[in-house]
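Regression report. Comparing outputs from two consecutive submissions.

Submission 1:
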Amino acid sequence: MASDPEPFRVDIPDAEIAELRTRLRHTRWPDPGTVSDWSQGMPLQEVQDLCRYWSEDYDWRTTERRINKLPQFRTGIDGIRIHFLHVRSADPAATPLVLTHGWPGSFLEFEDALPRLTDPLAHGGTAADAFHVVVPSLPGYAFSDRPASGGWDIHRIARAWCELMSRLGYPRFIAAGSDWGTSISTSIALQHSGRLLGLHLVPPLVAPDPDPGRFTEAEQAALRDLDERSRSGSGYSAVHSTRPQTIGYALTDSPAGLAAWIGEKLATWTDQAAGGLTRDQMLDNLSLYWFTRTAASSARLYWESIEEVARWFTATTSDTIDVAAGATVFPAEVPRPSRRWAERRFTRIVHWSEPAAGGHFGAWEQPERFAADLRATRRRLPADDTSARPGPYGSRQR
């Protein structure tokens, strides 16, 4: 009888890799845009260059071997099987941590941060900074199952993550993440605050101060960027939240279309002045979406939850969250709440960071800073609770 959680390895058939290259080489290209910038979307030459590299030079097998060095598992929760990394520190008393990615990212966002979190002595930290790290793939993403029915919103995922951490022997833990990971971590605090040692949000989602007369220059700049994103860069969200199935046909059939749809975000949401993401990092992630056929299933999370989450950072929230929380607000992120705004919802902020570099994919772009901020939050939490220490792997403490 198979164990549960069961070990997992990535093994994409040679035929699928060959088919991807064939499709890329036979792409029917549109005309170039009528502007010279990115205001109509990712320029034709940029997409062609990315797809040419994907078909001719990029080596998925190298990526696959690298991924398979990570301890991966799948387990059944609430009717579907969830893929996750479980990277334990050598220190048995390390702090449990669940990291959650978003769209259009994946578990790969945290790859370079993992050794910094699990082996802090080798990366400028102290023994007390060690984490046992769990990185689940969201339902409908990567190697998690694609839900066959609705209802998998951020709150249901938050409950699944609590079950996963129980199953791994972690009665209490820190929840952290970015994009959807911020919302899901926040939902854990709203539903099961007693499970949390703390939160670390990148960034926290809060509405602006209702009094514009109190805005600082930095707050005004953040709102201008949010308004511009809403005006000119939110078309993808409107499609995902209303017609994820329709766009899913195109993105599942055309790797060039997928490269443009996701590649635009991987380029424009990063801090290009600090280097952004490499072409290989982009294609590692694009290949995950392609080989797992998750373009439609990943987009459906917007259909389930974006209306609620958008209210959190544009309109108002009536809840307050008393869990000890840290936050990182990277300079190229949108939205960028101020600490003053965040404190109205998160009442126990123990660490606040505004780094000089980084964008929406902070852990991916700036893994050292991301890990350092998580350590700083951990150090400012209340004194260690022995219930936070992990039980035996696979135990079902609740």
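Submission 2:
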Amino acid sequence: MDQNTPQSQSAIVIIGSGLAGYTVIREIRKLNKTVPITLVTREPGYFYSKPMLSTALASKKEVGQLVSTSQDDMASQLEITVIGKTEVASIDTSTQIISTSKGPLAYGKLVMALGADQIRLPLEGDAANEVLTVNDLEDYAKFRQAIEGKKKVAILGAGLIGCEFANDLALGAYEVDVIDLAPQALGRLLPKAAALELQGKLSDAGVRWHLDTTVQSIHRNGNELHITLANGHSIQSEVFLSAVGLRPRLDLAKAAGLRTGKGIQVNRQLETSAKNVYALGDCAEIEGQVLPYVMPIMQAARALAPTLIGNPTTLSYPAMPIMVKTPALATIVSPPANDASGNWKITLVEGGLEARFESADGKLLGFVLMGSATAQRGSLTKELPAILQ
């Protein structure tokens, strides 16, 4: 790579080929067709919908079918340079050069769309190294290979990803056990009554719950895994999937001296503590919030694109409901802010449930809609306060 040409010195360089990286490129191209853009990624550089990983079995999609656009086609469509299967070793913010496994590369503006890693809990037992996580298409390919010809899958984690995978596997006729230290599913998103509705529907689909406990050890026993729980019970399974949450990728930012907290800290223009270096998506923290969902990524990309081509734009977040991909019970959640003061009001309706989180003076601050109640998504979203004004 020649990092000293005038073009490279004015170029926009994106690190990461997930939804955040490619969406900001698409938004830039709507505004400017000619600014040079280079995408560097540890993945091949193809585009796929990561949210589809937890619904692929039920939709009868093979791994290869999840790739919607190849690396070459992405490069051609967006008129960019894609440097795939490449690790970024370091960022020098003073010279504005990144070091990669394929050589140095200069940037005019750098965007870190690094994503997040699945958290791996330290587990005991001789089969602890057999625990799988799914965080990208290559992980998912290994998972699909692991469950081929098997019937029993255990999932550690009853959060968003754990519940979605549980529903998808149950629809694929697998026996599914879900384990979580919390007393309910989706503990960070749902009030208890709503969680019980979802747990009931997933139980009807064949999911078995092991809540208020965690995994003590996991041992190989012939063709099966023997999973011992902290409550003294045990589970026999064939494949073990860990889905306990995400941790933003911070190592590259920390090594470059950027400010980090829960994520890479950025201002309302998504600029980091280093000039001309920006971050968005699952790795970014803005005003104390890390929002690893699709809608915040889309909002951030729309704000960042004009900033990168010289029109500084302040990010705002409207209310952005989260769609939980559990066909057993359609669920839409707009959680109240962490510091919100109020109470949940639960209403059972025919074919569903409506939960409203209201302040003392009756203002709507959050909601959960299930089943038939999901039809109210549009009207209730309009009542909610913005996440970031």
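Expected: both submissions complete independently.
Actual: both completed, but the second showed a warning that disappeared on reload.
Relevant detail on submission 2: Residues 2-6 have pLDDT under 50 and may be disordered.
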